[in-house]
């Protein structure tokens, strides 16, 4: 199924790399064809710190995804973190090219390309152009102008720029894995495509993505981001606190945190998780710690119970959420987030985060989950990265991708063209 109807999204995270390969149907529907995940130790605080380690993880993830899909994919769209980003307002203009004055995807593409033309500092590079509104013959407030009639198309947009060296390191890592980067999507924008409702982005909402080593923040209002920020703390810091407080190896601390997250997720869905279950899990891990070879029981160790574990986790959560509160005050102070705060990311699965967030942020809070999507051979997907899935959704909804699908020749036409070319060469050689 290789071709323009296949898209691959790549999520390079602080702890793992995930690639998702999807097929796009005639109606724009997405079907997951392959998923590949590989641990990654080459990223520090969202930035590539070891190109070779990241390249190895990307190569492994791609190999696994391609094996599942049944064919090779050599080009990917990659998510990039909202670190050291800058935003500039811009406007693009294009004349409607159709004879019947109907705006096409080509016209939208030319308007966005015109908006991209601006003076970019040498240390910056353009990540993406996000349209705020389209203006057709002087009438604004238009979200999607395709199919409308007009002669003059304008677009008010935000150009998102990132640090050139950071973007180049990502591209180099992917290139060393044997792949080509054909598109870049800001990770909070991609995640928003996967977990936020269009109404939330229109009315105003804050998205908090708690990752491994960083927490990314994005506020959306009237469909576009009005705030992009991040704080240098995430799920890894919670794990380290558990390891120090409980005096267990980091691997056991991570397992204990995940066990708490699984129970919290089950409680949110089924409302059946109990305090006794978490306490029993904690005691089990405490028993594993005492039996670990080469380790001696330490006197004065803190009590291995649920209450102590919760205090460790809550202390770090409060610190992270207070940093989030400081970053989002300019948005909440203007009343631009009536839909509240949506949490996502692996670090947000620890229990208690919603209660603490509601207390500190003073807004409605909920946990976000990626939209349901078909998976080949089954119904819904399993655990798929919200960033990688959002990258796919963003690309599929992009006018450039739709244009490529519209202009793609059918396989039968391609076969006939090849036969005509062969016959033409045959005639020239022998006659």
Quick summary of this structure?
It contains 13 helices and 17 strands. By secondary structure, the protein is of the alpha/beta class.
**Rg measurement, Å:** 25 Å
In helices, the fraction of residues equals 40-55%
The side-by-side strand order for the widest beta sheet comes to 11-6-1-2-3-17
Overall shape: it is globular
Count the beta strands. Answer: 17
How would you classify the helix and strand content by structural class?
alpha/beta
What does the largest sheet look like? Answer: 6 strands, mixed
Low-confidence stretches: 269-279, 281-303, 405-423, 425-431
Distance N to C terminus: 39 Å
Q: What is the helix tally?
A: 13
CATH class designation of the domain at 86-164 = Alpha Beta
CATH fold-level topology of the domain at 86-164: Dna Ligase, domain 1
Q: Which whole number gives the mean pLDDT? A: 82
